[in-house]
Amino acid sequence: MTTYQLSFGISMRTILTSAFTLFLLPFFVLQAQEPAPVTTTDTAVTASSTVVTDDTLWYKLEKLSGTVNQGDFVVGPGRAELELKPGQSAVFEISVANRISDNRRFELAVEDVAGTDDAGRAVVFLGDQTGPYTLKDYISFPEKTFTLDLGDRARIPVTITIPEDAEPGGYYGGVLVSTIQDDGINEGAGTARSPIIARVGTLFFITVPGEVVKSGETKSVTLTQNKYWFEKGPIDLSILYENTGSVHLNPYGEVRITNLFNEEVGFVELEPWFVLPKSLRARDVSWNREMLFGRYTATVSINRGYDDIVDTSTVTFYVLPWKIVLGTFVVIFLVLFIFRFLFRNFEFRRRS
User: Fold this and answer.
1) How many CA atoms are closer than 13 Å to the CA of 37, on its beta-carbon side?
2) pTM (2 decimals)?
3) Fewest Cβ atoms closer than 10 Å to its Cβ: which of 3, 46, 56, 233?
4) Domain 214-320 has CATH 1.10.340.30
């Protein structure tokens, strides 16, 4: 009987190497693609309005159109930045839109604000206390209360007057708008619920020009919870900035992500954020894309907000989708096992 033997000339090591290369190829192809930009969208409730002429009012009145019954009220803008010289005054309008109910009474108040060592808090309202950069005595309005019907928007004139002897530097406060929202009667217990006092405001950042100290720096760039290994995105970063000067600063910058081959695979633009004097503030950044695998480096460039000084920091992290990797290796192992089983069975039959 003639014996036939097949010779393939392919080692098991070659098969495993080829299978592993086929598994990793899609990841490397994805990394070589163009960076996926991250865009930020600011959402705001907008509505057209009609001006109401009423000479008896001390504020401008507008009527909102469309759906206005939202159960809340809106104050804008969120922040106003002005530069005023000693002895100078300015009038700035804030808007208050009533989307709660008819005959709603609102009240205006002024408080100083300050920074804090708690990096998670942008500002602290000081209530009756006087802040280190007090502004509350320099802000006024014709009256402290007003009433709006549902769908009304008032444009409130706020006057800021800087005294003649004001020193150069920053002055910080906020105009707070409050209203009482009564939850009504608790039908189950038959008792009245406690009213909720809602407060929304506009921050005022006033700078008096002169010899001011602008000083600040990026203290650190860290991964959230100091986690360096990830199974998938998003990847969250925290940027800590310290302002050691006498005026507020508006740092801004960008984050660029590169892979193991130093190819840029991600970009995040950081819009300006404010940091009050003698305070810390953290800026959180999130980046994500599909099919992350391997070693990445985030390069963070922060412009300090003055003199075009840029701080640069880097942080490295790793992404390993172990569930996908494990599943792929199991499939490869099964394929190789079946292939080897069939090959040996075929060889045995040929020899027989």
Assistant:
1) 6
2) 0.75
3) 56
4) no
